[in-house]
Amino acid sequence: MMREKIALLRSREDMFIGGRRATWKEVRDYNDSAREVEHHPVHIRNYGCGENGKRTFDHQTRLIYEDPVNDYFLENFRGCLQDNVYDGMAAIFRMAKELHLEDTIGGLDRRYSQLPVGDFDGRTDIFTAIKDIFEDDRIQSIWQRRFESSSAHPYNYEYHMANGHRYFDKKQPIVPEDVIRSRVKMTGIIETNFMIGQQPIQITSVGGQRSERKKWIHTFYDKSNAAQIDVFFVNLSEYNHTLYEDERTNRMEESIRLFRDVIAIKRERPMALIFTFSDVFKEKIVRINLKKTFPEYTGELEFHPALEFIKNQFLKAVPWDQGVEVVPIRVINTLNRHEVKKTLLWLCHVAMMNVDPSQLHQEEANDHRQDEILIEKKSSIR
After folding, report:
1. End-to-end Cα distance, the chain
2. pLDDT tens track for 34-77
3. Among candidates 281, 276, 235, which has minimal Cα distance to 258?
4. 3-state SS, residue 72
5. pTM
6. Which residue of 20, 184, 186, 259 has the fewest CB atoms within a 10 Å radius of its CB?
7. Residue 196's beta-bridge partner residues?
């Protein structure tokens, strides 16, 4: 029911007014105003470059609110997961070449290239062969240096190595966590529809590759009476990655430019920034210096100062002089179902309420809570 959303987002613990915790009367008044717009459809549109967690977010929301989960939906991912296992090893060999470590792999690439390609169903022997290669000490030494690569390493590959035997055995089920860990290139415009209680929700996600962006125009204008919010996803860990389409262009810099262009077009309705891959970023930032991409960065190689710097790079791109007043921000790990659920409800809240920016408080993240609820104003940019 929508009461779950109201209680979660507008409890006394989560509501701030002018920097202080709200009184119970203020919470009740706020809830009363929320009920006036209850059951209006909510449209959420997800934008951003590729490999930023949009599709994982979509899968999580469907798995959270579709009860029971459709077995056919899960089974459809078997082939994708098999490809993730096979293609992930190829990505590791590409990393070895980029890092000039190809001479250290001693013929393992030839063993891999001799594996049959095609229908993997029932071919548990192929998975066993790939797993044996991955567990070889020579490949493990390359894997430990994966953050140094300018291309995205195969995320969740250790999970696939631990669970991939099920992907190749048709007698074994595909489970929801497998879907969340799958890696699917998004193309076109994909709509996901579901209900939260009696509240209809529609999430529209678009492919992030340069060749896909010409299709975005079809999602820019919606004259319906739905509550609407646009979301721009950013992969925090991509700060030293380059584009698939152009190896000379840094992904983070491309995201900043794209965000600037999109928010300038769509300033008539709220646009939120969601920074994803917080778990990978936290592990990576202590190894790979942010200065390699942003020489002006002078902070420590730690999660929070680096996050603050990246966040401000995006906020500097906001056309504040063209009517944009606030940019809601959240930092999440899309693999964490609890964080995704809270973020979805938070997006519904921002979309449905005509919120006064002065009544929104920036809640700073700490080591124990990274699901930040941030509302940034022009004055907060340093």
Report:
1. 41
2. 444 445 688 888 988 888 888 899 889 888 887 667 788 888 89
3. 235
4. helix
5. 0.79
6. 20
7. 199
